[in-house]
Amino acid sequence: MAFATKVTGIDKYTGFSYNGKPIVATKVAGNPVKKDYHHNSWVPETKKVEVATLWAALRDYDSVSELTKTSITMIRKWQVEPWFKNIVNQVIKDKNEVLDGKITNVLEGCVSLILDRLQHGEQKLAHRTGEIVRVPIDAARAATIVGILFDKRQLLRGEATSRSETGSYDRKLEELKEAFLKYSQASEIQGEIVNVDAQPVQAQQEEAQQAEAVLEIICDVTNGEDDPRTERISPEPAVL
Fold first, then answer.
1. Tens-digit pLDDT string for the chain (240 aa)
2. What are the residue boundaries of the structural domains of the chain, listed by start?
């Protein structure tokens, strides 16, 4: 397999690994695994892993074919098979884990630097004396830094970065609009004029239910204030 050994030159390292083993762009030393008694279509698993790992690292047909002594046609054929994709995905995953660790180190260093500047001020060159002095950071810039860091911390924790309290109210207004449209369409009379009193009792009951639903939504939006169904009772005058 195309993995690093004690004698592998540093210039051969690809920066990728597979299951913790560094992948190197070198030809495999030693005698070939395939023997004369093997079937012509038989390929050892080690060769398949070698081709897939090198492809994941190099992404170049000619280079992989030359290093592994495998035809480009065979490489293209293996590419669509599940085992090949699994190996490539594993190589990418290992690479991402390494990058994640490095990025984490960079972020920790930046956070430490920001904390130092907030606590002790920024370093400035005093032109008169030629010395490096500490200058307190201005409030506006500090507020910006804190706001950005706070939002990023909330995202990492899976918490909200802002609050929205208008969604419920807007939804109620939308329901009110739909109820009015539905009620107006149900109450619309098309064609010749008819006697309302002659409408079937069931139709009158349906309209009454729709009107009741509209009133409930209105009361819900206004938090129960000015309920049209509530009778206003004037207070009785006090008896002297």
1. 567 777 788 888 888 888 888 888 887 665 454 544 444 566 888 889 999 999 999 999 999 999 988 899 999 999 999 999 999 999 999 999 989 999 889 888 988 998 898 889 988 888 888 899 999 988 888 888 888 888 888 887 877 766 555 556 667 667 766 766 665 565 444 444 445 454 555 655 666 666 666 556 655 655 544 444 444 444 555 444
2. 10-92, 94-157, 168-185+202-227
Q: How far, in Å, are 138, 158, 160, 199, 217 from residue 226 at the CA level?
A: 52, 41, 35, 31, 12
Phi and psi at residue 200, to the nearest 5° = -60, 155
pTM, whole model, 2 decimals?
A: 0.52
Rg (CA), the chain: 38
Question: Would strands 122-126 and 21-24 be described as parallel, antiparallel, or unpaired?
Answer: unpaired
Element (DSSP H or E) covering residue 65? helix 61-68
